[in-house]
Amino acid sequence: MADESNGVEAGQVAINAEEPDEPKLMKALSLVKTKSSVAPSPEEEAKTLEELAQELKEKKEKGKMIKDENEENIKITSQVYKDYIGGYFGGCSMIVISNISMILFTCFALSADYVIGDWTSQKDQLKQVWLYSALSLTFACCSALSISMRVGSIYYFSLRADKKLHE
Predict the structure, then answer these.
(1) Which end of the chain is more exposed for a tag (fewer CB within 10 A), N or C?
(2) For residue range 91-139, what is the model confidence (pLDDT) as tens digits?
(3) DSSP state of 127
(4) What sign results for the dihedral spanned by CA atoms 86, 89, 90, 91?
(5) What CA–CA distance (Å, rounded) separates 141 from 146?
(6) How far is CA 124 from CA 18, 25, 119, 131, in A?
(7) CB 84: neighbour CB atoms within 10 A?
């Protein structure tokens, strides 16, 4: 049984041959038509459509770092890493936040170890049990928070890079 509305038989899938950006181009073209008092000729309309397509292509290419994935001669240098980290991952802010959180983790872990070591070297360990327990727990919680800060920042910058890469 044939579908009368679009000429497609039952069980067949209609293939849309139009490009996905064509509605945007047609909308822009209609704006150009409404601004001028004289209707453009078919040659002018085709030229305008080509110009708009070229502008759209240039806008899409502007933010891309990879031009052609099928290049055979690809050279990975330190500049490539710098471009990707700076362009996608946020550059120095990612590195600074990640390193600060690791430094904080190391300081808190060393402090917790020092407190426990000092506590075990005391002759009367039960005398200040609450002080040493509280300090040890505080340093452990702070080191857990600093690791969480590092993991959270890495996730944030990775999602940010993913969003920019796939725009």
Answers:
(1) N
(2) 788 888 889 999 999 999 999 999 999 888 888 888 888 988 999 999 9
(3) T
(4) negative
(5) 9
(6) 83, 82, 9, 13
(7) 14
135 forms bridges with which residues in the sheet?
none
| Across 14-28, 58-72, 153-167, least confident range | 14-28
Pull the structure tokens for residue 79.
């500049």
Q: What is the pLDDT, as a whole number, of residue 107? A: 94
What are the tokens at 78?
């330190």
**β-bridge pairing 8-9 and 2-3:** antiparallel
Asked if 142 and 162 touch (Cβ cutoff 8 Å), the reply is no
Domain boundaries, the chain: 91-165
Place of tokens 């969003």: 163
Spatial neighbors of 9 by CB under 8 A, at least 6 apart, are: 1, 2, 3
DSSP state letter for 40: P
What is the sign of the dihedral through the CA atoms of 102, 108, 112 and 113?
positive
Q: Is the dihedral of CA 73, 53, 55, 45 positive or negative?
A: positive
Gap between the Cα atoms of 57 and 22, Å rounded:
12
Could you report the per-residue pLDDT of 9-27, keeping only the tens digit for each? 544 444 444 444 556 555 5
CA distances from residue 113 to 9, 101, 108, 117, 134 in whole angstroms, order as listed: 76, 18, 9, 6, 13
Residues 6+ apart with CB under 8 A from 49: 25, 29
